[in-house]
Amino acid sequence: MKKIVLACGSGIATSTAVAQKVTDLLNKNGYEGQFNIVQCAIAEAKSQCEGANLLIATTVAPEGISCPYVSGVPFLTGVGRPAAEQQILDIMAQ
């Protein structure tokens, strides 16, 4: 089971929108039931990354995180979304 941390400023608004899009992406690519998304505020991201496989954040990633980072902004704006999706799929394939 892969742990994906999804962070935004408060852990509620934009992370919820991005979580649904990431869930749809992963399910469409055969990862249904193979991941768990944990939403949090960006201030909690560093501690939540302990043991996580990926951090997706709609803000700048905090320094010193212990897992790979993918920007969640493309899921909000559409700009660069295919590249962000591919990064996520590449990490899931590891």
Task: Walk me through this protein's architecture.
Its EC number is 2.7.1.-. It holds the Pfam family PTS_IIB. It comes from Enorma phocaeensis. Keywords: Sugar transport, Transferase, Transport. This protein is an alpha/beta fold and 94 residues long. It has a single domain (2-93), classed as Rossmann fold, CATH 3.40.50.2300. It has four helices and four strands; from the N terminus they run βαβαββαα. It has helices at 13-28, 42-48, 73-77, 81-93; strands spanning 2-8, 35-41, 54-57, 69-71. Helix 1 links the parallel strand 1 (2-8) and strand 2. The longest helix is centred in the N-terminal third of the chain and has 16 residues, at 13-28. The chain is globular. The chain starts with a strand and ends with a helix. 27% of the residues are buried.
Count up the helices: 4
Which spans of ≥5 residues are poorly predicted at pLDDT below 50?
none
Classified in CATH, the superfamily is Response regulator
Mean pLDDT: 95
Question: SSE layout and pairings?
Answer:
Elements: E1 2-8, H1 13-28, E2 35-41, H2 42-48, E3 54-57, E4 69-71, H3 73-77, H4 81-93
Parallel strand pairs: 1-2, 1-3, 3-4
Key attributes of the depicted protein:
4 strands, 4-stranded parallel beta sheet, 4 helices, 94 residues, alpha/beta, Rossmann fold, globular
